[in-house]
Amino acid sequence: MILRAPTPEELPGLSDMCLRSQASWGYDGKMLNTFRQDLTLKPEELETDALMVAEDKRGVAGMVQLSMNTDTLAQVKKLYVAPNRLGEGTGKMMYVWACRTAQENGAEDLLIVSDPQAAGFYEHMGAVLIEKTEPSPIPGRTLPCLIHKLRAQA
């Protein structure tokens, strides 16, 4: 398995993979349509964020998007594994990459706003639940907000 930067031409297929991965949690079509805009990768994100594709000889297994929110805070904006590739260690590999890349760019903390069903993965990887947040466009839906400390506290 390798990690590599995606090409602009791959963004529609990667966005579709993110939506299929989200669908694997059992969301209905209406909810998935609500998620579609947030899960669509935009060409300008190739310039502003760090994106990586996990791939092997069988094809794309997942993707991760990391953003530096401030000089000391990075955020995992997307981390999705293709549904047929779950359980192979792809998510862990991409998460470790995100932590290392954030550290290399000066981040002390890694923020994750997670789907409720994926929060356990992030906790297993060392992130700690800090609060629930209520993002739009889905009124009344709360998402776990987690922090992974990247630097030891003095």
UniProtKB/TrEMBL annotation:
Q: Which PROSITE patterns match?
A: GNAT
Q: Which Pfam families match?
A: Acetyltransf_7
Organism, by scientific name, is Hyphomonas pacifica
Question: What Gene Ontology molecular function terms does this protein carry?
Answer: acyltransferase activity, transferring groups other than amino-acyl groups
Instruction: Write down the InterPro entries for this protein, in alphabetical order.
Output: Acyl_CoA_acyltransferase, Bact_Acetyltransf, GNAT_dom
Q: What is the lineage of its organism?
A: Bacteria, Pseudomonadati, Pseudomonadota, Alphaproteobacteria, Hyphomonadales
What UniProt keywords apply to this chain's record, in alphabetical order? Acyltransferase, Transferase
Signal peptide range equals none
Q: Does the keyword Chloroplast apply?
A: no
The superkingdom listed in its UniProt entry is Bacteria
Say yes or no: keyword Transferase present: yes
UniProt-recorded name of the protein = Uncharacterized protein
